């Protein structure tokens, strides 16, 4: 199977490197010309939680890609989804499949652009960070879940499971939307942890922060239920605990998970504190807000969170524990 990794940063780079290591023919596509040049010249270097290794890499910028493309693992930031899909569209065939290794509900947009028959859902939650051109750090473990958008079991989903199992445990689910919505609720919690320059396990363990974090998750889970979605348990995020009000147990679980990882601060924190660039807040938290509005549900805490993240992006607000005082929580 020939595979194209479109977006060879943290997530795409780690998955693609493991596929190459297992003998898969992979083309890495990335808009960062320096990253592409480094991969073509020196290969792709991975270090982190499983040790370190280097693989040879074929890489190209989007303008130099030549089709046809078969299986595409899309791993760009969610704010670049439409641009990336439109770049690859001329190279897709009726039998192509685009698999979203992203944050958010990107499968909806991808399916709108190229059709649900060429779109596969994937839940990704392992940790990784781009370090430098040609160098990515694998910061944490988490299984993958993949599924057809309609929940059906197909030959191609089973083939994809075999492919991705070369990287990590991969499970086929008939409820991919349940995993994606759980991750969307979890994302609001993780965005809020980036309001502070602290490790995730420190933020979720802070008693003053827990009411805000719990409220953020519950708002999104309420929207999921309104759409008839059954949120699924993730390794460290159990939506049913939040819905039942078992917050201490829920946050202790998240804290324990992050203490066992190399990557103990989120990519959101890194975007704000290190890379000084826009986060994915609008296509994660913002999408949850829009989805809620469409069914008559307001998400006031998530609206406040989106505003705070925008202020951090603009430099008009600094990371601080005091940021949690900006939330208005109804008794």
Structure description:
This protein is of the alpha/beta class and 331 residues long. It has two domains: 2-174, Rossmann fold; 178-326, N-(1-d-carboxylethyl)-l-norvaline Dehydrogenase, domain 2 (Orthogonal Bundle). 42% of the residues lie in helices and 18% in strands. The chain has helices spanning 10-21, 33-42, 81-88, 106-114, 155-164, 176-193, 200-204, 210-226, 239-244, 247-259, 267-273, 285-294, 300-314; strands at residues 2-6, 25-29, 44-48, 53-55, 58-60, 69-74, 92-100, 119-123, 128-132, 135-138, 144-148, 170-172. The strands form two sheets. The chain has an eight-stranded mixed beta sheet, with helices on both faces. The longest helix has 18 residues, at 176-193. The model has no long low-confidence stretch (mean pLDDT 96).
């Amino acid at each position: 199977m020939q595979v194209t990794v479109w977006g060879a940063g943290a997530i795409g780079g780690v998955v693609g490197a493991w596929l190459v290591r297992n003998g898969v023919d992979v083309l890495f596509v990335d808009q960062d010309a320096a990253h592409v040049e480094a991969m073509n010249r020196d290969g792709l270097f991975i270090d982190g939680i499983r040790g370190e290794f280097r693989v040879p890499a074929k890489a190209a910028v989007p303008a130099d890609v030549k089709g046809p493309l078969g299986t595409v693992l899309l791993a760009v930031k969610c704010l670049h989804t439409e641009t990336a899909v439109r770049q690859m569209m001329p190279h897709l065939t009726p039998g192509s499949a685009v698999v979203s290794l992203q944050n958010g509900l990107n499968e909806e947009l991808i399916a709108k652009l190229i059709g649900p028959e060429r779109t596969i859902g994937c839940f990704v939650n392992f940790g990784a960070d781009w370090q430098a051109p040609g160098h990515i750090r694998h910061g944490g473990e988490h299984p993958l879940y993949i599924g057809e958008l309609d929940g059906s079991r197909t030959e191609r989903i089973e083939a994809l499971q075999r492919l991705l199992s070369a990287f990590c445990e991969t499970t086929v689910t008939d409820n991919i939307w349940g995993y994606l919505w759980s991750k969307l609720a979890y994302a609001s919690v993780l965005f809020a942890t980036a309001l502070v320059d602290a490790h995730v396990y420190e933020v979720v363990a802070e008693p003053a922060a827990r009411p805000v974090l719990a409220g953020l998750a519950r708002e999104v889970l309420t929207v999921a239920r309104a759409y008839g979605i059954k949120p699924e348990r993730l390794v460290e995020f159990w939506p049913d605990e939040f819905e039942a009000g078992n917050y201490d147990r829920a946050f202790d679980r998240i804290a324990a998970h992050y203490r066992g990882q190399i990557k103990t601060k989120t990519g959101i924190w890194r975007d704000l504190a290190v890379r000084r660039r826009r986060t994915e807040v609008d296509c994660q938290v913002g999408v949850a807000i829009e989805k809620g509005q469409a069914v008559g549900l307001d998400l006031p805490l998530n609206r406040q969170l989106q505003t705070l993240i925008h202020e951090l992006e603009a430099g008009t607000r600094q990371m601080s524990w005091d940021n949690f005082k900006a939330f208005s929580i109804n008794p």
